[in-house]
Amino acid sequence: MDAFFETRQYDSGIKVWHKAYKDLHFIPHWHPEYELIYVMKGQAKITVDEKTVFAEAGDLVLCSSGDIHYSDSDYMNNELAFLIFDPLIIHDSFNTYQLTSPHLSHQKLHQLGLDELIQNTFQMIGRELMEQRDYHEELIRSQLQKLCFSLIRQTNHLVLDEPSQNKHKDNLFKFQELLYYIEQHYNEDISLDDAAEMTNFSPSYFSTLFKQHTGYTFVKYVNAIRIERAISMLHKNYNMTDIAFECGFNNSRNFNRVFKEFTGVTPTAYLKTSTTNQITIKSNIRKSAIQAHTDDFVNKTLVSRN
């Protein structure tokens, strides 16, 4: 998963992606698709464009096209279901659908008469993508349209006004470009002042905005990208000194210090860990989760508040 821009492979001819995860953590990223996150069990801390929400079982979190979002939910004993799809599958109007809050609680969904529809949609699409029977793409498209137009109709009073949407998009575009730049130039000397100049903000204001958008300080975010690249190179048996310089560190000592800050161990110790431990270590960098098999969820009641 790229930090700035996430791309995915679809298992079917239709651009709809469905997966379920336990204890999910991922750093800020964005993609052109729309994303629906449904909490099946436990709680989840999710941030969508500066707005952090604590969602619980039965709640829905919505990420519009281009929204920068991330999750710090790896220790919250949760199960989350995801639907990610090209908004153009629905209608042009859905591409600009933006609520004042990305979070719809299970109480609100019940009040709007959407709770059962959402559960049925996640179950039905998961099953159709898994089985891929005749006309599954048409049925998926139809069910998504039913859900999305119902959302638009029932939440029309919760949609951002046009001036707010325009300001939101302007700031979002600046940060999308910046995250792309960091991804391409993480091995260079990128200062906070340079980044602030790229976005036309003062360094102090930029620092505040960056933390609001990503949950990270600027330096920590850049180092997260560097350490992920370092881990990839470690598994390919590169020399430690070469890894340090290739990933933007000016010496091995600094590389070892930052690596341990993120993983809890030195690069040498990391290589000696088991596969199970590596999953835990990576949870502090880009993305970690226990992926649940979709078929474990498509034939059972989605919500559990135990």
Automatic annotation (TrEMBL):
GO-annotated molecular function: DNA-binding transcription factor activity; sequence-specific DNA binding
Coiled coil region boundaries: none
CDD domains named among the record's database cross-references: cupin_RmlC-like (cd02208)
Residues annotated as domain HTH araC/xylS-type: 176-273
Keywords per UniProt: DNA-binding, Transcription, Transcription regulation
Pfam family, one: HTH_18
Protein name: AraC family transcriptional regulator
